[in-house]
From TrEMBL:
PANTHER family: HTH-TYPE TRANSCRIPTIONAL REGULATOR, HTH-TYPE TRANSCRIPTIONAL REGULATOR TRPI
Single GO BP term: DNA-templated transcription
Keyword Transcription: yes
Keywords: DNA-binding, Transcription, Transcription regulation
Gene3D superfamilies assigned to the protein according to its UniProt record, in alphabetical order: Periplasmic binding protein-like II, Winged helix-like DNA-binding domain superfamily/Winged helix DNA-binding domain
Family of the protein in this entry: Belongs to the LysR transcriptional regulatory family.
Record protein name field: LysR family glycine cleavage system transcriptional activator
Gene Ontology molecular function, alphabetical: DNA-binding transcription factor activity; sequence-specific DNA binding
SUPFAM superfamilies for this protein: Periplasmic binding protein-like II (SSF53850), Winged helix' DNA-binding domain (SSF46785)
Amino acid sequence: MNKPLPPLNWLRAFDAAARHLSFTGAAGELNMTQSAVSQQIKALESFLGNPLFIRKSRQLELTNTAQAYLPTVDAAFKLLAEGTQTVLGVDQDQMLEIRSNLAFSKYWLTPRIGRFLKANPWVRLNNTTVIWPDKAPLVPNASVEIAFGDAAALPFQSGARLTEETFYPVCAPNQAKTFTKPKELLDQRLLDVSGIIEGWDSWLRAAGVEIPPLLRIDMASTYVVTLPLALEGCGIAMGHDMICGTLMERGELVRPFEIGCPLREAYFLMPPFGGKSNAASTAFRQWILQEFDLGN
């Protein structure tokens, strides 16, 4: 006999907390108290028999169970929203469903998409963020997906490649002034993101630094955790132009050394699932390709 589904309010609390990586942020979105969100998350964890979050002093991290469960919950809410919009008679041509990873949405898309929305005020935006997308980049309920992964991997070959980048360390400007040689970074807290093919080991070798037997690297599941730590002067984060570019243009982060290594991953604009598209997604695709100087 199948186990009954968990209550919808528990799933809403989980979905919001996973996107914000914060019970407080989820509480603000859902117009609830932080304690109420926490109680609903605990109830869902008890129901599933697995923890969903690693609770730290200043932020949350998703467990493996949460990372596996979140895409399903997200897709279910999107399906409900689409069904409701159909019943209410919302013009589906106006709906722009964008799916991308959290760091891309925060550090690249959010500072720029205002230009697109001003040029296309008729568009109704729904932007879904995830920590790590499903291995298959195509998502049935998203009219636009920006995928990030190994450029040599087969699933991404059908997409339009948007980037070819290098990766490098970044830190707060005042901190960068204290370094004269790359090996001095070994005395600092090194920050990186799990799931990236290459990181500190590759960069240190390229910089001619002898890697100690026990190289300490503090890891997080997203750049949304590591870059704020670097901004606060709490460590040296590994990054690349797509997620660090705006912060460096503002002078909030800098590269302590100009050495960079080729990033094996890239961002891809994936084709619409089943070839389905609408006016909003077509307009967005044209806009983002122009942003990357890939338009016709």
